[in-house]
C-alpha cells in the first residue's frame, strides 16, 4: 500500500520554483472549481461505501490521507469528483480502482446529500468488493503523483469504537465515516 502521510513534514516535495503573484495557480483553481460547479450544478463528489466481504465478516474500506485544512491525517472513505459525462456510480467504481486498487460492483446509489455549509454535495455509492476475485488479490492503485493514501479496513461491527480509538490517536474522523459509525451504533443500541 501507499506510504502514510500523517503530518506536513511527511509530505513529499515534488518541485520548487519562484512564483510570481500573477502566476499563482490557486486563483485559476478557484475559478475552475466554480465553473465545474456551475456546469455540474453541484453534483460533485461520489463517496464510496465499499464493503469487503471477508470470512470474519464485512469490513468497511477506509483511507488515511493528510489534509492540510485540519493539519492531520483524516480517516476517510474513498471519494472523488464525478467527471463530466460520468454518473456517480461510474465515478465510484473508477475512484475505488484508482485510489485503492480494488474492483467492485455498485449495489446502490443514495439520493444527493447536501452539506448545508457550502456548495459541496455528494452521493453515497454502495459498492461490494468480492475478495475472491483475482483482481482483488494483488492491488494496484493508480494514484496521482500528489496523492498519498494509506488504505485499510475495519470490521463494520467495530466501526464506532475504532473511530473513537483513532481519534484518541490524533486522527481526524471524516464526517461521512463518523456518520456511518453513528448509524451502526444507533441501530445496535435500538435493536434495529
Describe the structure.
The chain has 192 residues and is α+β, with helices and mostly antiparallel strands. The protein contains 4 helices and 9 strands; from the N terminus they run H-E-E-E-E-H-E-E-E-E-H-E-H. Strands 1, 2, 3, 4, 5, 6, 7, 8 and 9 form a 9-stranded mixed β-sheet that branches. Helix 3 crosses helix 4 (175-189). The longest helix has 16 residues, at 25-40.
Rounded radius of gyration (Å):
18 Å
Question: How many strands, what sense, and barrel or not for the largest sheet?
Answer: 9 strands, mixed
Q: What is the count of β-strands?
A: 9
User: Which outline best applies?
Assistant: globular
Low-confidence runs (pLDDT<50, min 5 residues)? Answer: 25-43
- Kindly state the mean pLDDT as a whole number? 83
Alpha-beta classification: alpha+beta
Number of helices: 4
* Portion in beta strands: 25-35%
Report the helical percentage.
25-40%
Cα distance, first to last residue? 36 Å
Return the string of H and E elements. HEEEEHEEEEHEH
Amino acid at each position: 500500500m501507499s506510504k502514510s502521510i500523517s503530518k506536513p513534514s511527511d509530505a513529499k516535495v515534488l518541485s520548487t520554483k519562484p512564483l510570481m503573484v500573477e502566476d499563482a495557480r490557486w486563483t485559476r483553481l478557484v475559478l475552475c472549481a466554480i465553473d465545474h460547479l456551475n456546469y455540474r450544478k453541484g453534483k460533485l463528489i461520489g463517496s464510496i461505501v465499499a464493503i469487503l466481504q471477508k470470512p470474519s465478516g464485512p469490513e468497511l474500506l477506509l483511507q488515511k490521507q493528510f489534509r492540510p485544512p485540519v493539519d492531520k491525517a483524516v480517516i476517510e472513505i474513498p471519494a472523488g469528483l464525478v467527471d463530466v459525462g460520468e454518473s456517480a456510480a461510474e465515478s465510484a467504481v473508477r475512484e475505488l480502482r484508482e485510489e485503492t486498487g480494488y474492483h467492485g460492483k455498485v449495489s446502490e446509489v443514495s439520493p444527493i446529500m447536501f452539506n448545508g455549509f457550502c456548495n459541496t454535495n455528494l452521493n453515497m455509492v454502495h459498492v461490494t468488493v468480492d475478495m475472491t476475485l483475482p483482481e482483488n488479490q494483488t492491488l494496484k492503485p493508480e494514484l496521482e503523483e500528489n496523492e498519498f493514501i494509506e488504505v485499510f479496513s475495519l470490521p463494520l461491527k467495530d466501526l464506532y469504537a475504532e473511530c473513537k480509538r483513532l481519534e484518541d490517536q490524533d486522527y481526524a474522523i471524516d464526517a461521512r465515516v463518523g456518520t456511518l459509525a453513528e448509524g451502526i451504533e444507533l441501530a445496535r443500541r435500538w435493536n434495529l
